[in-house]
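Hi R.,

Here's the chain you asked about this morning:
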Amino acid sequence: MGKKINFIALVGFVLLSVLGLGNEAQSPDWSSVDLASSGDIAWMIVASAFVLLMTPGLAFFYGGMVDRKNVISTMLQSFVALGVISVVWVIVGFSLCFGDSIGGIIGNPLTFLNFRNVGLQAHPDIGGGLPFLLFALFQLKFAIITPALFTGSMAGRIRFRSYILFMVLFTLFIYAPLAHMTWHPDGLLLNLGVLDFAGGTVVHMSAGLAALAGAVHLGPRKTKRLTHANIPFVILGTGLLWFGWFGFNAGSALGANTDAVQALANTHFASAAGMITWMFYERFQGRKMNALGACIGAIVGLVAITPAAGFVSIQESLFIGTFAALVSNWAIAAQGRSALDDTLDVFPSHGVGGMVGMLLTGVFAADVGLTSGQTETFLWHVAALVGVSIFCFFGSLVLLKLVDRALSMRVTDKQEAIGLDASQHGEQVS
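And here is the predicted structure, written out as tokens:
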């Protein structure tokens, strides 16, 4: 049964890849739209490369935290998204995110099917004057890292082929509508006044809630004890993520401008505050200041500042990083006392961190936040948080159940015991 499904999936990819060919003659004439400056284009090429580096960085970050017998599997689950999501993005993913709006919920899959009409001209309404292809490539990097993020919650017990299918379905049915609603000019959330500068809602909340759904659906590992394979890997991964996050947040200004500068500075200082807060809070609790905690704190700070990066001051970014680190630390402790087995604490780090960032964006956003005497934006953020949480958690849970019926998601007890490196890939760390 599994081989038949794999063959059908391969044939489906081949058939879908030829759709849309030969339609270049129908391309709209956008030649009158002014392109961004060469400086803006150069920065966005660099920013796209920065964001791409985050996924290998995440592979090291997660790979260093799992048991030695699952290092390769965990790293590959992140790394393979570079290939799988790139193909999905060209065929239909980008169109679902940024195609002609259908009710403000989802893009028309035919608008940019197979990257039709995605060329070197600027789109009149999307992309800030960048060559539309460059905008599509920049957005692709966000779509790649989002499913890679939720793998940490299911590490050590998920079949690789089942994960790939779930990753594709998640991108099409969870990520795409959320990105459309948040970032498309006609998107529902955008037009309600919900602010998400670089993906706190679209990327981190969605990944965190999918991680929670995955942990619930798969159930706990046979042994929840975790021996971290390689802490230097975690430090390396954190450094790559921190570096790449400058492209993630500052690149979301879509140009070499003052918004990019503000976002870059806020990104750095929120991460620094998250790191320091985590370490000193651990010491306050009577525990040692350790490298793992410093890295997790830095990542939580990066997560929390993402939706607010271009909307707040440096002082406010320090508060966001500090507060998010405390809340996520409490959430990890609470989760540890529960029966839930989120292997690498993805939900309390990314999900909760994204929620904190989303709410504090409504508090601090310049001119429209609570600190500016306005309440509407904050109230819409509260409502959006509830709606997005329900959509992402239960939507992911439905997709997990569908994949489980088709392929069976969890490895056998024997495969789990020997490790996914050997059982899923026939490889092992020497």
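One quick note: The chain has one domain: 37-420.

Cheers,
M.
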